[in-house]
Amino acid sequence: MDLQGKRVLVYGAGRSGMGAVSLLLSRSALPVLFDENESLDEADVRERLLNEAQADEEASETDLKRGADALVICAGKVSDELLDKLDIAVLSPGVPCDKPLVQELYRRGIPVWSEIELAWNETRGETLAITGTNGKTTTTALLGKIMADARPSVFVVGNIGTAWTGQAPKTRPDSVTVAEVSSFQLETIHRFHPKISAILNITEDHLNRHHTMEEYARVKERIAMNQDSGDVCVLNAEDPYLRQFGKELEGGPKAAWFSSASILEEGAFLKDGWIIIRDGQKEYPLVRTQELKILGTHNYENAMAAALMAYYDGVPLESIQKSMLEFTAVPHRIEYVAEKRGVVYYNDSKGTNPDAAIKGIEAMNRPTYLIGGGYDKGSSYDEWIQAFGGKVRKLILIGQTKEKIRDAALKNGFEDVLLCEDLEEAVAKCALLAQPGDAVLLSPACASWGQFDNYEQRGDRFKEMVRALEE
Known about the structure:
By secondary structure, this protein is of the alpha/beta class.
């Protein structure tokens, strides 16, 4: 769609919203920025826009400043008069579709786009997109490296930390865009069409927004809804939701499977300590898992998914192999921090749900002091507690969920629980109690909101506190 002259409501004045406004201005659209915060500082918004906007080569700084000055900003509410003039609305990922304003947009027949729909509309070249409950960031980062090592123009965008809307104007016909996308973003796609997609897994998360697992799975599976027989959808053969979904792809994209537990007739799997890709009658040993710089079976699954996506996009196996062996873990995902007095500290702040936190525990090879708790997303913690498997010496809990998780631990027979006021107290207690040969793992099984802005801030603060401990 040509956006020139279109009046577009952007819902949310955070990083995503500002990126959307910048892109719209560079395309000579007429954005209207709306935020529910009635005390939004308009002067600050315009200054941030000028500082953060990344226009393409065709948009001059003068044009951008003129557009920023003319930007309509609505704080608290949008008038009916303005709603009557809208052509499109773009939602930031944090805005649920059941908000009254969003429902009013639907009632008026105004197309409601996600941020990724807007970005994809302005992206040239191929799109490779990854979703799933866990492993998205690691898989996106690894695939991004594989593609960047093999292709001249690669952009790694999305939830991984780089707004896609800021990079879309820079793409060209030979570009490859590797995108990490969330269920929040997939709710409101329309024409979004990746050449190769991947759904890594579907486990309980974000039920406070999607309400049921069936709805959560349906939204995740939308990543493939516009793909056709010339495209590929990479799926986890060990996930029951995805096994069923793969059966429903007939006539759509090719289902390419990976498995950490089964030998597949076609796809990627583990065999005798190797990651193997099998295509027809040919079997290609890629790498030994012990040679990878990322730990745990869940990371071998991430590596298989990334390798399959690159393979089906035509990257030579030798190039895939070299990139996989060079790749190191992303920050905040079972990230080694330091060893203090014989105790090793790991930052797994990105373990924001029980299933992700289970992966963190499974990767530990020492007796572990586990720091958990945070914002309540409506998750159940029973399976997480049951996965401790004798590895956890003590569970140290913080945040809104600390009593809820304590009760789950006691119900499941784990009694060595300590409640703390905040992360600072939790780290101090671990430093006091842990003995040489132990590990301390921050793997909260909860979101960070309430105490921190995001999991990155939580993980960075943990690393600061650990590094400040006495040697």
